[in-house]
Write a structure and sequence with these properties.
mainly alpha; Butyryl-CoA Dehydrogenase, subunit A, domain 3; 9 helices
């Protein structure tokens, strides 16, 4: 779970491995100070999110998201996003061109918007849990998520219109 989150945030498998390693080094070092005020997974996700954001701020993340590597089990797929974009999400998601455009659009999101989008729409976390993982208030997470969805919708709108009209 930590690696998948790190990969989605950094968009780079090598960086995600570094984030994973650093996260668990920090977890191990800080475990005696864990107070159980939140779930252990929430605490670990928060550390991973902070580590990934620090690496992004230092300019170490590349603009790449491999959606094929996303943990897309039967209950974790991109259908909810695709349904908001078109009437036939399954066919569109299999379309390599749409996948490439979606990857590029996700890569253009500012880190805090990308984090909100990935935690809620890709990881399928409840809003309160996603806010705790991201270390922001529920209102801030909702705002970031809304902006991420608007950005993605706007980025993909022209392409979707072309698809609908067969252009």
């Amino acid at each position: 779970m930590v690696y998948n989150l790190a990969l989605r945030m950094t968009r780079n498998p090598d960086e995600a491995e570094v984030v994973l390693q650093e996260t668990f080094l920090k977890v191990f070092a800080s475990l005696p100070r864990f107070r159980a005020r939140s779930r252990l997974t929430t605490w670990i996700y928060r550390i991973a999110t902070n580590e990934a954001l620090q690496r992004l701020r230092r300019g170490k993340g590349r603009a790449y998201v491999d959606l094929d590597r996303i943990d897309a089990g039967p209950d974790r797929d991109l259908r909810p996003l695709a349904q908001s974009l078109a009437s036939d999400p399954h066919a569109l998601l299999e379309d390599g061109e749409l996948r490439g455009r979606l990857e590029a659009a996700i890569g253009e999101l500012p880190p805090k918007h990308r984090t909100a989008f990935l935690l809620v729409d890709i990881e399928d976390l409840p809003l309160k849990e996603a806010a705790a993982h991201a270390g922001v208030t529920l209102a801030a997470l909702k705002s970031d998520l809304h902006r991420a969805r608007l950005f993605l919708r706007d980025k993909l709108a022209a392409y979707m219109e072309e698809r609908r009209h067969g252009a």
